């Protein structure tokens, strides 16, 4: 079965650079969530989208923005990167018959040098 | 405020030992509860979930959890662990839009 696809899997950036992470949800899933998991930390909710509109906002820094496109994929844009942004960024999707359960992608590991 | 707390940071067991990982939640209304497992270097995978009904839920790989409303608990159990169960386990709660709040996680190390 198709899963949640995230790209890139690994990304190395320097301080003050920008980065874009992409998430392709499971087909027919209309809701996307972004989580940030720092080293040895629990995942923290950043932001979510339902039908291309922002539905919830968590602890997302102002330097970050995200959107969901007409094909339901989502992109997380991060600017003015800081060392503390180094983390694993998970995308999860839900919707359709699996509306009650989040399915997570494999994550994108961002390292800021 | 919504919160999920896990009691144990690191649990070490021998193979065939029984497992119970504690999870307590604090929510104002109806809550959906989940246990996720994260194997080393991998993504979060759903073990089991509770929405309503039978408070004893069974998940994959022989795991089960019991929702005890009076204790605000949702402990994860397995009668006999295997080396392959070595992973980090996260309890999570959510309501409505399923914006999940995760516990801090419990690392389980199973010694062969």
Give the topology, please.
The complex is a heterodimer of chains A (113) and B (112).
Chain A: E1 5-7, E2 10-13, E3 19-24, E4 31-37, E5 44-50, E6 53-57, E7 64-68, E8 74-78, E9 87-94, E10 103-104, E11 108-112
Parallel strand pairs in A: 2-11
Antiparallel strand pairs in A: 1-3, 3-8, 4-5, 4-9, 5-6, 7-8, 9-10, 9-11
Chain B: E1 3-6, E2 10-14, E3 19-21, E4 23-26, E5 32-38, E6 44-50, E7 56-58, E8 64-68, E9 73-78, E10 87-94, E11 101-102, E12 106-111
Parallel strand pairs in B: 2-12
Antiparallel strand pairs in B: 1-4, 3-9, 5-6, 5-10, 7-8, 8-9, 10-11, 10-12
**Largest interface, Cβ cutoff 8 Å:** A-B, 24 and 20 residues
Mean pLDDT of chain A: 91
- Determine the oligomeric state from the structure: heterodimer
| Strand segment tally of chain A | 11
Average of per-residue pLDDT values of chain B: 90
Instruction: Tell me the helix content of chain B.
Output: under 10%
Tally the helices of chain A. Answer: 0
Distance between the termini of chain B: 41 Å
Using DSSP, what is the number of strands of chain B? Answer: 12
Helical segment tally of chain B? 0
Summing up helix and strand content along with how strands pair, one would put the structural category of chain B as: mainly beta
* Span of the ends, CA to CA of chain A: 36 Å
Using only C-alpha atoms, the radius of gyration of chain B works out to 13 Å
Query: What share of the residues of chain A lie within helices?
Result: under 10%
Largest sheet of chain A: 7 strands, mixed
Tell me the series of helices and strands of chain B, N- to C-terminal.
Answer: EEEEEEEEEEEE
Strand content of chain B: over 45%
């Amino acid at each position: 079965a198709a899963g949640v696809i995230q790209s890139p899997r690994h990304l190395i950036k320097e301080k003050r650079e920008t980065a874009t992470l992409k998430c392709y949800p499971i087909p027919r899933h209309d809701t996307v969530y972004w989580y940030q998991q720092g080293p040895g930390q629990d995942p923290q909710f950043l932001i979510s989208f339902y039908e291309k509109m922002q539905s919830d906002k968590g602890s997302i820094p102002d330097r970050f923005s995200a959107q969901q496109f007409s094909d339901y994929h989502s992109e997380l844009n991060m600017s003015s990167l800081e060392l503390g942004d180094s983390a694993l960024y998970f995308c999860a999707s839900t919707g359709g018959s699996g509306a009650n359960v989040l399915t997570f992608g494999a994550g994108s590991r961002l390292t800021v040098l | 405020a919504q919160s999920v707390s896990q009691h144990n940071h690191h649990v070490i067991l021998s193979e065939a030992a029984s497992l119970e990982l504690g999870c307590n939640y604090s929510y104002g209304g109806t809550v959906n509860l989940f246990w996720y497992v994260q194997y080393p270097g991998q993504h979060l995978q759903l073990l089991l979930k509770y929405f309503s009904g039978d408070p004893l839920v069974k998940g994959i790989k022989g795991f089960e959890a019991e929702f005890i409303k009076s204790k605000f608990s949702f402990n994860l159990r397995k009668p006999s662990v295997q080396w392959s169960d070595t992973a980090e386990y996260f309890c999570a709660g959510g309501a409505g839009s399923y914006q999940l709040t995760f516990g801090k996680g419990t690392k389980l190390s199973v010694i062969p």
